[in-house]
User: What shape does this take?
Amino acid sequence: MTSIIAKKLAKKKEEQRSGLITERINEMLLSAVVMQQREDTGIITKKDFDIRPLYTLGLSAKKVKKILVNEMLNYRNYFSGTIADRVRRLYISMSLHEEAYARLYKGNWEIKVNALSELYKMGVETDHAYLLELLNNNDRYIREFARLSLMKFTKRDPLQFLRELNEPISQWEEFEIFLLFQQKNDFTLGSLEGLISLDKEPTVVSLCLQLAVYFRQWESVPLILELIQTPDLKLRAEAITALGKLEATDSAKYLIAIYPGQAHVIQLKILATLGMIRSGSYLRFLENEFISSQDFEIKKYASDAIIKLYPLSKITIDKLMGNAEALNQKILNHSLNPLLNTL
Amino acid sequence: MKHFLDHFFESYQNVVFVYCCTIYSIYALLTLFSYLSILSNIRRNTIRENLLLIQSPLSPGISIITGAFNEEMTIISNVRSLLTMNYPAFEVIIVNDGSKDKTLEKLIEEFTLIEVDFAYHYFIQCQPIQRIYKSENSAFSNLLVIDKINGGSKADAINAGINASSYAYFLNTDVDCILDKDTLVQMIQPFMDDEKRVIATGATLRMANSCIIDSSVLVKARVPRAILPLFQEIEYIRSFVLGKMGWNLVNSIPNVSGGLGMFDKEIVIKVGGYDANSFGEDMDMLMRISKYMCETKQEYAVRSIPQSLCWTEGPQSLKVFKRQRVRWGRGLYQIFSTYYKLIFNPKYKKLGMIVLPYNFIFELCAPLIEFLGIICYIYLIASHLINWPFAIILLVFVYSFSVFITLLSIVWDQLVIRRYSLKEVLRLCVFVFIEPFIYHPLVMVFALMGYTNQFFKTKSNWGHMERRGFGKTEKAEVKVINATVI
Assistant: This one.
């Protein structure tokens, strides 16, 4: 009980102080990086941004700097372009990156991973050789940030680190890498050969499929088609969806050929993909599946695909609406209703 | 006969002693585990920024599913609150479970709903669907309202919602629960970041009684003023922050609360959805999905996060509280009569070797052993056979240990987030000392009543709930007439 009271009081006092310091830092950052009209951003120096008066407000210099870095990271999260770049320059001119470097070589994983993440998010390059060494660290978060940093600062072939990767990546890391490539404008995505492959770790392949779609990499289509042979149903489904998103017209024939022998979930993906491909050449197949299948989901996916092919499918829709039995009519109405297809 | 009773009760003292030692050793271990689990969660949150999930086009969609039965007082503000969740891709599915009041009419009017020709398929069993509505207003394009025949249970309503949901994950909550704006972002995190396939995630629930709520948004969290919700608040902190976070470390969480739980829809559909006849449908669901994963030889994890994300009205009257706890007792008994074959079955790994045995011995049997213990003491006192020094030492030990553990759980809770003022934390701590004398015996008696009802198959229903509502007035204090059944 005493410990709760003591901790509560101490924490309350610290929170009040850090609140005041955060407010001051925010004001300083606003005037130095947001309100700044000058294009020449290199001139914000340690002298222009003097935080020493804040050390007298009751918190240690270390804690004040921590608040400053957190605020800078928030600015980097919420601003892009010039403002984000100004924050980065300010961070470097205040030598905060050197402090992060120092922490990077400390033993404690938490300090190390926080320093890595700070440098990565600030866009400050780290010692390449040391990052390579960290790729073999026991801690997954350290390995992950080392990988991200290497990919961020490698211009020539950032994908090489994925090629060398043999462990699964979490979906979180997949999101991080995807966002990194989305925001990275100083490179071109190289060939995904060797990455979209049956031998590769499925989570890495899954990420590469997303990248192929995002960067509209049609040259990956043959690799994706080969991937459909994978016994991993989840990956196979993702590969088929990627073909749809790439609108790989030529793959439709192959997808229809393999359709009968596929698992139910894969059949659904093939139907959805035919809708995305929009060639309209396989309308008869979709129509047949819609009418003859006894499975609700097959009917629903076929119907959605037919509707997506509008106006190519106009005649088919009219014909189906005219002859359809109650359930089919309901499914078609569902697919046609714009209120039900907003998600 | 007397000789037999003397011998039985004397031996029983030793049984109680061994039982107490074992359970307290487990509690001590759980205290340590929960501390480690909370620390790991805090550390992870310093590395993982939820902003990524909001920015990423890859973030998975989530369906929020909730049942509504006679909720006309609160439905509008609650749905509005659900629609403002901080997440890029989600839908809100409200299942009007045959309300007799104006719940549906209010929804139709407020959200400009129109009936749509929805191709509804019964992937899992539920009572028939009457109508489905969508909003004409594009601002509410992610709202879907299902009107169905009353199924007599929340489980049936949630099953109806699952059938109509579009996304791979769903959040099961009560419509009257007040959710934190970041609930979806926080609860999807374990699914995205775990090395195993996560099939369910839970978070900490708190009492909304006495909190300041404005239009279904929590403005200020406060410790309940009324005594019964206050004891429940203490119980919830112990159960969620210490119990579930402790079990989280060893991936042996027994239950994800029906008030707030996120699930992998694929697995839930594969096991046939919620059991509408179960009195403990939330625990039953976790048992079934875990059992399914073991039987199909898939690695899985059930996770809990220590953040308080959901505030619910706790029963304020003894009558409603009794009804809730009797139902929980029935639910627990029902679970073990269904899954007894899994106990100590190595095929079911942690479910069979840890989760079920622990819950059987230390949850289901605890009220029985305790009750028998009280009888034993009375008998030994009456027969002048009691060993007073031993009895007093045992009682003092049991009391001080349970108080100590509960106090620690409050400290752990303070590690996660400090929502209460010092005065309120102290108030909680004071009531921790009283809890074993007032609240605990009630819980024990109601649990035993639940077991008896289930054993004799006494007819029972979920009970009618009335609410005053707290969405109409500005910063109105939550006052409960007849509180929710969680």
About this structure: The CA atoms of residues 1 and 29 of chain A lie 41 Å apart. Residues 2-34 of chain A form the longest helix (33 residues). Chain A has 18 helices and no strands. The interface with chain B takes residues 1, 3-5, 7-9, 11-12, 77, 110, 113-114, 117, 140-141, 168, 170-172, 174-176, 178-179, 210, 296-297, 300, 327, 330-331, 333-335, 337, 339-340, 342-343 of chain A (CB under 8 Å).
